[in-house]
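LOG
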Amino acid sequence: MPDQQFDISFHFNYEKMNNYPRSRGRRTRILMPVRDLCTKLLFIAVFLAVSSIRLYAQTTLITLNVKNEKLESVLSKIKLQTGYSAIYENELLDHTAPITLQVTKQPLKAVLDECFKNQPLQYSLIDKSIIISKKGASKSGPDPIIIKGKVIDSKEQPLPGVTIRSKKNNANVLSKDDGSFSLSLKEANDVIIFSFVGFITQEITVNNSTTLNIVLEDQASKLADVVVVAYGQQKKVTTIGAQSSVRAEDLKLPAANLTNAIAGRVAGIIGVQRSGEPGYDNAEIYIRGISTFTNSSPLVLVDGIEREFANVDPEDIANFSVLKDASATAVYGVRGANGVILIQTKTGKPGKPMINAQYDQGYTQFTKIPKFADGVTYMQMANEAYKNSNPNDPLPKYSEDRINKTSTGEDPDLYPNVDWFDVLFKKAGQNRRARVNVNGGSENAQYYLSVGYYDEKGMYKTDELANYNNQVKFTRYNFTSNLVLKLTKSTKVDFGASGWLSNGNFPGNSAGSIWGSAYVLPPILIPPVYSNGLHSQLRTGDIFNPYNLLTQSGFSTEFRSQLWSNIRVTQDLSSILNGLSITGMFSFDNYNEHDIRRNKTVDGYLASGRDSDGNLILQQTSIGSNYLGYSRNNGGSRQFYSEAALNYKRSFGKHEVSGLLLYNQSDRQDAFAGDFISSIPYRYMGLAGRATYAYNNIYLAEANFGYNGSETFEPKKRFGFFPSFGVGYVPSEAAYFQPMLDAIQFLKLRFSYGLVGNGNIGGRRFAYISTVGGGNGGYNYGSNGVDNNIGGTDIGDYAVSVTWEKAAKSNLGIELKTFHDQVSLVVDFFREIRTGIFRQRGDVPQYEGIGSLPFANLGEIHNKGVDATLEINKQVGEVTVGFRGNFTWNRAMIINDANAPWPYPWQQRIGRKLGQRFGYTALGLYTSKEDVASSPYQTGTNMPGDIKYKDLNGDGKIDSYDQGPIGYGSIPEIVYGFGPTFNWKGWSLAGWFKGISNVDISLNGDGLQPFSQGGERGNLLSKITDRWTPDNPNPHPFYPRLTYGNDNMNYANSSWWVKNGAFLRLQTLQFGYTFSKQPWLKRAGLSNVYLYFIGNNLVTISGFKLWDVELGDGRGSQYPLIKTFNLGAKLSFR
């Protein structure tokens, strides 16, 4: 085969990627510069592309070396080298002589002449076909029919290597690089079969046509036909379990953490994000809410193995599914009660290498941060509060002279006026992403290779004089490689290796400490740094200068690495029993973390005035260190997982049956265990089974079971059996429904019930083993009162009959398609009874003399709700319009919490919502002294403008017995999302809104309770001006009457401080244009180019205005959520 020359050039501008300012002093080095990374990736991609192109290069020069081979075999070898297909009737080759031939780079015709010499046959060449007939046969018959055309995919990209075959004879060809083909047929009514691995096979009747343009549909796009289920796949029409999926494209946000992309995207997911700090921004994810007092996290499986998914690159995801009911999760047994998330990564598709390169860059901002009052307002409000509490003191807390000097800013060292958030934070940060992936292969081997890079810089300010970097910076590298080999017609092997590396740089103090100090330190006490360069610090031991905590405390680096590897072998056993196969899998995962702390402190000073020369009079308040300390921490784990499964699937006329029997086990060990208990491996093993039946796709039935356990429980109670069953009915497939198909194209009803377990019950490991300690106290013997401590031991924490939680789940689902399949609706109603929740008894009276109360599986919670998904797709002229929305509501009620009964009904937790808040019910503000006098007694000095509470038990006083249920709680009962999409002539626009409701925020802490601790402690929100005063007796202000010190109940836990936490957020907006048909693309070697803008967390609509509403309870002293604005480009080429 002659050498072919191919010249492919890649041009990529990386200047933008190097625009970040260089670090000062010591910094954590990035593992590899992005430019080098992408250059190497593109080099690899070019190498693979050229290698694959050679596979498709065609020539009419042939090299053969055969000895005594059949003519049919020689013709096959000629086809492999030239693309010429032989057309003949099978019996023609029965009496041909074997061929011995050795030629090197000879023309096709010369080689064929040698092959047909001394044969009873003759040949002719017609348009890439070798037409064979008997020697001497008349050539006056009908001329061959030449069919020409082109094969493309759904994105209008050409498909090379598609097998195009005549159904009536052996004529077959492969499509060329541009997707074109030419096939010779004998009959005008022949049927042509188009087949390609990874695509749906099509059969086309010619019907005298001479030109055929074919669009093959990707099997991966047929999510409506096949869904991923536990340990396999099922036809969607016959699936009974409740599950939802989300398109991988919808998860590709300009953010590092995948958990932040799914809340509001998938029906059944309850999710909230409590921090936006890079590297620590995991969202809380619950499937159908929380149904337990213990661990509520779902089981997450990536490529079939239990793994974390926060750092999975969305670009590598092929399928993301959520399993919700017992029918879908019972096979996971003791791990399935909290629901299951299944993620499958991408694999390759046959054909020439398809290379995708993507880069985007943008800037980040806080979505919303609290606003503090300035120094002047602070002192004026302090004077008002002080006067209210000390009406007989003629002197104010702060003099007019100090207020004036603070207002004019004449001496910021002695009269500072500091906005601490302005001191600490920049206006914007930066982020950028780069990805390159390549996939391709043949029918017997497909590969997918991907490398990704993400980098984000936070919004902290840095000290220009420091010799280290305290900025928040998070960098992550992802890689994924999947290889599928078809070793024989019945044996397939899947190899997978993937993982990620991350490197984080952080200040020496945590975000909570820095933000908390900004809330505690008033704006008028000290400047961030004195004008002479010395750092300020109060004498108070628990009020720190937040600027020092940020810039003068050193830094830390946190390195994380995760390696995932797995091999799966599938053997088709149809030779033994049709439909039978066996699968085996083994995986090894390794996780490591390495943290280095370089902490330091700084000398602190406090100014008390100026001397006669105008110099500051300073006193040292703290002694720092002149060097960076050093400490480190290592952690990690190793996990082995193995699995063996027997699968059966077969159709008998209208009957379809399938079965699964699976064994699996896992072994995870802490690589840096700090004690003996932690060093014991965490082990799990079990069996799983499933049987399904479908009659004519109308009547459906399914049974599942999981039999598994964990080493956590005592030997006799380690294993449990968790069964489930489900039934379904699809009337739209029945004959009687046919007249209604114009109105309703698909209708399915399904019901499931089953038992699932939760072995992650919290508490001490091996809780069934009691702990015993030394005695406390003793007995005094004799007149001298000697304490002999005789025979005294303490029973520590202990538990009785520890086992897993049990969840009995039922689900009723409806699936509907209407308006000619343009509208689809899925609704599920669910109920769960969770029993055996691990709790410490609180109902044992003290007179029993038990020092440590036992633990047992006593708790019970009932959860119910509904989730739904609506999808609309419609073509309006040349515009493709789409809409997708989902809704989830759940409510969990406490049935038994193992606590003693409360004195009054309104105090009872039994029968209340899980997470229900309790506190005083605020009736409003006192309007007059007469109102105070006629109301129930409240602790402290109460005046008009103070909060008045409801006396629930009617005893004439307000105390703890008057605390009842208030508000909803911090976890939303309702989560929903919706978004439209528009596509027109290459232009695309998509948006996604996320909302939560039935949730609230409880306000508390320094900065929220002005002057409540007296002294100069606590900043003030700018909201302080919205308060009650005698001159402005607003009955509904934000703050009641201001007081100095805690001399009333204004800041008690009450409904006054519980605010509505509902919001609607524009989570994603993406706008772009795809170049796909322009002539310059082919000249540049590109298939398409997509240029886009994407923004995240752009707009939030909420009645809560203090900070980002999603941060939840407290005072907003967490690192806020981030909004992003990114521009990018994605290039695809073969």
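LOG (cont.) second protein
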Amino acid sequence: MRQDPRRRFTCLVSCAVTGWLAVAGVARAQIPLAPSGGPTDRVSCAMTGLGVVGNPTIRAQTPLVPYYGKNDIRYDNFKWHIYTTDHFEIFYYPEVEPHLERVASYAESAYQHISSELKHDLAIQVPLVLFKTHSEFQQQHIAPSYISQEGTAAFADSERNRMVLPLDYPPDQLYGLIVHELTHIFEYDIIPRSLVRRGHPLWVDEGLADYMRGTWDALDLMTVRDVAVADVVPRMTKFENWTGYGGGRTVYNLGHAVFEFIESRWGKEGIRQFLFSLRKSVIGGGENAFDEALSVSADEFDDQFSNYLKERFKAFRDKERPTDYGRDLSPDPEDSPYTGALSVEPAPSGELIAAVVGNRKDQEIDIVLLSAKDRQVVRNVTRGFDKDSGYEYISYPMARGNTVPWMAWSPSGDAIAYFARTEKQRSLILRNVVTRRVERRFYVGTVDAPESPAFSPDGKTIAFAGLRNAVGDLFQIDVETGKVSQLTNDTFADSAPIFAPDGKTIVYLSRISGNDKLFRLDLASKERTQLTFGTHDEGAARFVNDRTLVFPSTALDPSKPIDPELAQDGNIYNIWTLDLSAGTLRQYTDALTANLSPIVLPAAKADEPRRIAFVTYFKGEYGLHEIPLAEPKLDVASSDFGAPGPVIDFQAPLTHALVPANQRRKGTFEKLFLEGRPPVSVGITSGGDLFGGTQVMFADVLGDQQFSFYAASISQYRTLALGYHNLSRRLTWGGQAYQQTLFYYGLQPGLLFDPSLSPFFLDRDDAVATRTSTGASLFAWYPLNRYRRLEISGGLFRYNEEFQDPQLQQLSDEYQIAQYGRRLLQSGTLVPLGISLVQETTIFREFGPLSGSTVRLGYEIAPSIGDTLSRQSVDGDLRYYKRLATTGVLAFRFRGFKSWGDVPDFFFYGGNSELRGYEYLEFVGDSGFHANAELRFPIIEAMLTPLGVLGGVRGTIFAGIGGASFDGRPATTAFGQPLNETNPNAKFRFWDNNTDVVRAIENFVPNETGSYTPVYGEPREISGFRLVDGRASYGVGLETFILGFPAHFDWSWRTLFNRDWEDALYYLEGLFDGGKSGSDWFREPRFSFWIGYDF
């Protein structure tokens, strides 16, 4: 979850979570990769208006992104306050207030540290927005919701210099988090961000932010050591992003190492000079930052950094690599879509291993069963998309990563327990490993961020770690009743519980004095005992037997002196055991990178020791290896690392005393400002009309109160709107005032005007009609869950419908009044009230929908109030996407509309992906539908061109059918003329299978009125199935991305499924086009080009 620094948000991804997913080929995004500002950026955006009925907002006539979006739900009612310090405006709510003084101390300490290091001060008070927990942090409205998903610890906003973070981290890690994000604010001030200025590499922003923290996380250092020893150090001066090796966190970590290199060669002043030289090069006018600040060329800098990194980690080259442990038990990525083994759990029998792996096909993480004898995948327990299992995604520990377990296997061996995201909190899932069915689910709503489940030996309870009041503790849940009880209640961050074989005690991790140490909890007396000591970290433990623990640890031999720098560059997790009776510690591995998540497997033979399997990391990939628990490399006493002593809690360098006078309630509309750069969307219809739009938004610092100005155009017709949207509650509401002009082609002679004015004498562009609406509306949206919501609306608007040609308008008025007793194109005032149900479960990829469904059902009524007009309308849009193979899609859509009353509404469609092969907006009616079926498949995944790597090419095989009618009469015929002169008022018939006698129109002759009269040919007998007033088409197409926009090249063939009928209906068109038959003319292939996303 990393945003490019030239974009708006910079995030800290905790403990390489994104790195794991990138290694595994997993992308966490569940929205379409649309251009910024599209309707998928915020479901709650008041101006998207994608619906027709029941949507209070105006709609784009042809939206670039035709999706409704999932819901970003505000589950909690935050009562925001502001507290000011010397350098910060801290936004908080009452539940955060107990932590306010501590966080203010951290923030001011961080400011002084960064300011003194960079010799730079900010001219503003930095807005610091605090959330108590990550589940509440995910409800923020400052950034698109995907920015704050699990895996993102915090983020900083380059446009308005806001910092946004939750508090549920141990004190030392929370301070480091604040330093990291505040460093970004300093970077934004030193190096301006703009669309028109040159960018700079991501490693600069993230590397400096991690460098300023002054510490290395063991798993971060692991990736740098791996890059150095594997001799794949990239050329940092040309290093924009890390697209594979080592995953997303490698960008941060290499940048961190770069700034340590600069300090080692040029001192801290060299870092400052580099940043300010980079400022010059970014805004223009400066030399290359490396030449100007460091007096070396870019190539020399790259070479020197590579040599520095290799020399720095030279001492580790001879340490153990995964191949030294034998075979890799993780899935073979060449034989399966699964990559890596992020966390593992043995079956009670020891014959199978459950592993959390990346699924390249689904771009999600899955739990698979592996054979402990070979690396074969026995079963994918969580097969399919996560949404189909009733949750958003499988959750993983945040800050602790794979140093703690992610799942547990039941003692009976028939179920696996893991946590998954469901609504605000996580749920504990019990899944049968044989049937794959979810047997039980427990919504753990009273505990934030639960993780690391562990079954008791009798299987009746499950212990887990979680947060209450932003502090980590241990809990347990009764499997029978679902009751949750708290096991620990202290100020330390407790995690990774595991039951002893007798079920009387639990061994777990607790963070004290800045390190994770093992403790034992007596369940009866609640007495806790520290088991490991020292200034290093341990990971989660497992019981080898009732007296021995196995666990990862960064401990080093306490009897040997070691260079402090070498110790810091090591910080390597290795496999250790602890004899609980004798207090003896034994080391079994001496890894180059890290060995994590050990599990116990049975001995290969009866006379051999038990085996220990563990997660390894090498050359950017996670693996699974095993060793026998035989001769240790090191045997020491636990007391050699120390003994219980006073707990030294983290203290900020500066202490801030809370000043009550600086606290106040935030005003509802306080601190409104421009919300980012106005987004721009551009498209082209299949009729060649250029469309586009932009939106200027003002919002408060929290993003809860939004005022917007929306402007869009298609052809020469414009839409303007002013809106307000309140997002501070689960029920979001707002209002808008607007003026909008839509256009369509009213080329329906015999329906809208006299049949004598046939298309033979009128051009399509002569029959352009418009609908201009001016009005205001109020609306409210209530999300039922992540995927469904209700939309209600009410408003008042005046509208006018007319042909652009005044003469045609006059003729049509006369004709419609004579035929229908009223105008079909209306003018007047309406007071509509609407309600809609929207469902969006679709999973998207960069090209559009991949799997899932979309439903929108709407009803609108405009009652007659005084002189206002009345009508009722229903509208339905149903879509279903079935994935084929990896990125193939079978897509279906049905869209229907019906309006009735004094002045029925009407809709118009055609062209683009609605009904290919027909003219853009060719179909108009107060009732109608169209249905589509498409097979979409990849042809070329990516193209290497002189311009760089461009988007791939996808193919489409499509078919569509539809029709529309006005007042029960057909809205589309050839030349608008009936084929039976004895029945000029025939009713709409979509299809027919009966035998009819018709007479084709073969000519037009002038009459005494100055108009033309059709000349009918001889009677023809038409039999067999045919579309009478319906229309259909089929064809093939290609899709690719041009400048980031989806471009479509379609070849279509129209059909009515009956050549005799087509010959009669389109006789004149074929005659005038070289004497072809009507069917040959109608079925000629038609090419269209358009830009926009598929339905």
